[in-house]
Amino acid sequence: MMQLEIMLNGEPLSAEIASDALLVDVLRLNGFTGTKEGCGVGVCGVCTVLVNDLPVASCITLAALVEGSQIWTVEGLTAKDENLLNAFVEKEGMQCGICTPGQVVSCYALGLENPKANEEEIREYMSGNLCRCTGYVTITESVRQYLASK
Amino acid sequence: MIITRPTSVEAALEELADENSLAVGGGTSIGLMVKNRLIEPERLVSLNGIAALHGIEERGEGGFRLGAMTTLHELIHSPIVTASLPSLAFAAARVGNPRVRSVASIGGAIIHGDPRQDLPPVLLSLDAIAHVVGPRGGREIPLAEFFLGFMESAAEEDELVTQVTVPLRTGQRATYTRFTPGSEDDYPTVGVAVAGNLDNEGVITGAKIALGGVDATAILAHEAAEMLVGQRPSEGLFAEAAAVAAAAANPSDDQRGSEEYKRAMVAVWTRRSLARCLAL
Ligand SMILES: Cc1cc2nc3c(=O)[nH]c(=O)nc-3n(C[C@H](O)[C@H](O)[C@H](O)COP(=O)(O)OP(=O)(O)OC[C@H]3O[C@@H](n4cnc5c(N)ncnc54)[C@H](O)[C@@H]3O)c2cc1C
Ligand code: FES
Ligand code: FES
Which of A73, A98, A126 corresponds to the end of one domain? Predict the structure, then answer.
């Protein structure tokens, strides 16, 4: 066991963790269940969180490696920027909702990295977040609306 | 397992001298392997806190220095890399997905040693050199001598890659093409990196062709590349060289295609890559 100190959604979090604990599990055990594990191998994007402003797959990230980092989850980002969730609600960028937390975090990350992204860049960036329901059109529209709000 | 975060190369090497220790770069491969119990190291040595392993530099005649912990994200957004090493920036931008690119490092990319990876063929085509240090001192290993086999490199377990350097080749043209018939986010079935120069008369004065996904490691197709030198670019020349490159490939059957299919695709994508890179 070891002590992990991070800034989570802008607040300090100190947690006792196993040295091989994955970030997704640490977040969920500490009540941040917006982040979910889907594929578990870095491919689907459901577990996306921001570490020091960059998106990472929390399902393959050893929590101990992010010691001292700024972590933001879907809970913190949607509370910080209301345009983010509004874009997905207004453009209906979801159906079953399973992929949604990851889509929302990736959308925010794209806003940081390339707020003027064109249609192709949006599609390319978001292609790492799989969705089995929407066919991606409404997700892309949600992302476009969010970027336009920046 | 314990995780340590040394802040100097020397301190990291001391920890890696213990055979149960393993270096961690971005951790994208290590994270998966630890999670699935494919490896059970006693100590993971995170390299992230070592300032000397970071940074991208342009050194005039000395070429380019890419610290081993340079992330793919940093490569993609570096004005130096996008301007002077565009095939590397292009390849880095196509690895996996943004989550992998945020953290995966160039050092990890060359040590990992999966033949389907995108950066190794590009670095081979650019004549890149791995700088390695360990308890027995430092060495510079041309990438052409670095990839020894499946997940096996010329760097020992107690050594670290500190940087990758790329020589300056004024006027060099370079491209990377990744053929992903399944999904763009997938590993390539075939990756083709080409680099070369033409003189004022339009004669090819140097060329490298490197292939990913079609042998136990990324490989250079020497014979195919040498056929080009001294010739003027033409569709016929490119098709002949591509056929020779395909003969040099040694692919195996898997979900990305049969041996025969992959070999055929090497010919197609090498021909197209040569045309994209070296046509007048
Ligand atoms: C979902 C997913 C998709 C992927 N898709 C692609 C793809 O499309 N194309 C592609 O090319 N790759 C792909 N990859 C693989 C990825 O490129 C590699 O995982 C990555 O480049 C390795 O870099 P890293 O820094 O994360 O390595 P790590 O996981 O940190 O380490 C990998 C290996 O390198 C060693 N190591 C790391 N740094 C050093 C160093 N400086 N000196 C000595 N040893 C070192 C480690 O001990 C370990 O053995 C994918 C990976 C994932 C998880
Ligand atoms: S659960 Fe992490 S990428 Fe799918
Ligand atoms: S809304 Fe169901 S998977 Fe995306």
Answer: A73
Domain that holds residue A16: 2-73
Nearest CB neighbour to B27, from listed A61, A113, A129: A61
Domain-terminating residue out of A25, A48, A73: A73
Alpha-carbon radius of gyration of chain A: 15
- Quote the tokens at residue B260: 């025969």
Cβ distance A109 to B97 less than 8 Å, yes or no, reads no
Taking an 8 Å cut-off on Cβ atoms, the answer to whether B27 and A125 are in contact is: no
Q: Contacts of residue A20 in chain B, CB cutoff 8 Å?
A: 1, 34-35
Residue A97: CB within 6 Å of ligand 3? yes
Question: How far is Cα B29 from Cα B109, in angstroms, rounded to an integer?
Answer: 9
What's CA A49's distance to the chain center, in Å?
4
Please say whether the beta carbons of B115 and B218 come within 8 A. yes
Query: Is there a contact between B195 and B172 (Cβ–Cβ < 8 Å)?
Result: yes
The ligand whose atoms approach the alpha carbon of B151 most closely is 1
Q: pLDDT, tens digit, for every residue of A103-144?
A: 999 999 999 999 999 999 999 999 999 999 999 999 999 999
Condensed to tens digits (0 to 9), the pLDDT of residues B152-207 reads 999 999 999 999 999 999 999 999 999 999 888 889 999 999 999 999 999 999 99
User: Does A47 share its domain with A22?
Assistant: yes
* CB-closest option in A22, A56, A59 to B102: A56
> ipTM for the complex?
0.95
Closest residue CA from atom 2 of ligand 3: A96
Q: At A114, which amino acid appears?
A: N
Q: A106 by DSSP, 3-state: which?
A: helix
What gap in Å lies between CA B138 and CA B131, rounded to an integer? 7
Q: pLDDT tens digits for A88-106?
A: 999 999 999 999 999 999 9
